[in-house]
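Sample intake sheet
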Amino acid sequence: MTYQPRTPQPYKDNPFGFVYGDALMANVEGAVNVHPIAYDAAGITVAANVYTPADYSADGSYAGIVVGHPNGAVKEQAAGLYAQRLAQAGFVTIAFDAVTTGESGGEPRNRDVPYLRVEDYRLAADALSTFPGVDAFRLAVLGICGGGGYALSAAQMDKRFKAVAVVSMFNTGSVRREGFMKSQADSVLKRLHDVADLRADEARTGELVYSADMSAMDPEVGHKLPFDMYREGYEYYVETHAHPNSHSRFAQRDLMDLFAWDPDDFMYLIDQPMLMVVGEKADTAYMSQSAFDAATGTEDKELYVVAGATHVDLYWRPGMVDDAFAKLADFFKDKI
């Protein structure tokens, strides 16, 4: 794969557009540096950032880690934070924008199609494995939130990933199909018929229907959303760590694909070492537990609980992220 340098889009006071804490402000010799790149995905341009460690040499031999962002997020948020921190631990890492998201190309925008999201990880592995100094036989994958579910699917089939880790894993297929905590399990068929009617309307009008965008939500509504994850997600994406490329809307037609996808179905195909990091107070913890239990193909697995943390705490909160990162760094150093 060939890739090209890319000019980053500044945002607020950060020249790279990063919105996470302690983000890089400039590339300095002898320190962790970031290299904005772009590469091709079947005619679609993907935007990504490669982070190199302080001792980086193009003639070296470094383990590489692909880092995938949460649903609706972009590489400048939580994925960038973890990619930067892992580079500080000595890895070469890549954080990318999923196709149709952020700075990456692809039309129509804001799709959530499982095949495309899993392929994002494979393409990032292609790019990272050809980056100077990266050992193509020492790759791993880390996914956050919805990106965690897709990272599991990627590791199930792509054995270039010698280890897999997830943080606050979110099973998008299960939630779209059965609802959060299975709150809509009794209406799956009705909602499938509704999506069929919606797609028929789209064929007639030529206009895609999207879910509501959280950024347009009244704050009083956002702060009263059901479930901690959604309330704290509103605060993170709209108030504390907002980025103009981040979104919370998705093409509703993609529900047809999401209803039929579930990483739990093929967890037995993960034979690599696996680490799942979850917050003690996360209302999504049941998703990690379910995937962990289904991972019967590996005995080298651990479900690590961060004390006091909620789902979204592990995107950014100091102390809790430090705990998660320390565990991840030790895991990757040992396994790749």
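Comment: The two ends are 23 Å apart (CA to CA). The CA atoms of residues 72 and 247 lie 5 Å apart.
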